[in-house]
Amino acid sequence: MVWPTAILSTCPNCLDEKAALMRLVQISDCHLQADPSARARTGFPLRQLEAVIDAVNRARPARVLVTGDISQDETAATYRLAKQALSRLDAPWFWLPGNHDRPALMAECRALHDELDLGRWRALLLNTHVTGQPHGELGEQALAALTERLAADARPTLLAMHHPPLPVGTAWLDEIGLVDGEAFWRVVAPHRQVRAVFFGHVHQAFQGVRYLKEGEVPVYGCPATIDQFLPGAVNFALDELAPPGYRIIELSDGDLDTWVERVDL
User: Fold this and answer.
1) Please, which of 28, 65, 135, 258 could form a disulfide with 222 given CB 3.0 to 4.6 Å?
2) Which of 84, 104, 105, 106 is nearest to 95 (CA)?
3) Are 63 and 95 in contact (CB under 8 A)?
């Protein structure tokens, strides 16, 4: 399903061809529970999500991507709570499932879109959920569909998913990334219009690059709205000093800029 939109400028009086055409925001890994007062390891999921939402509204994005692990307890009540909270966003928002989610329950609560029309750009939202498993996988059918979708439209394209399609340097997380990552990159390789890949899952800011024969593709991870994971850890470890955050993505005429903002609680 495609969500159409017109180009929105964040610099309406600017004549520079590189001026931002549209600002997007990525938030990820809310891990809500049906109980609004539930506590996580280092804080309160709903309270922290609401703080991030307030900060995102001040950033005034045109669209918000929520890249999975909405729920911790995988209940319908949690998705209703998430919808209520995320509906406080001033911009239209779109979610995709993570390993902790139940896609069918998400879809019952609010539609799962697989493509966003961003005017001169577009974003493809990929489902890497594998039932009962912490790792992600696209699978042959989804990869074949991605091949067709990329061949059909030459506009600059963003890919968004939950699981990272390459190692992030945190050993225990690298064991539960996208298991068919190499097949994913073989699909992406011929399509130079893919400008970047954005993912969640790792609960930390990340910036990397995948080098291909045809060029290179930047790859970006996003902080969680709840507990942050310690970058570079061999085994599971929290980064107790890092606050929640979100990622800003600014699209210009063929280029993009992106950075992470943190939210003090």
Assistant:
1) 28
2) 106
3) no
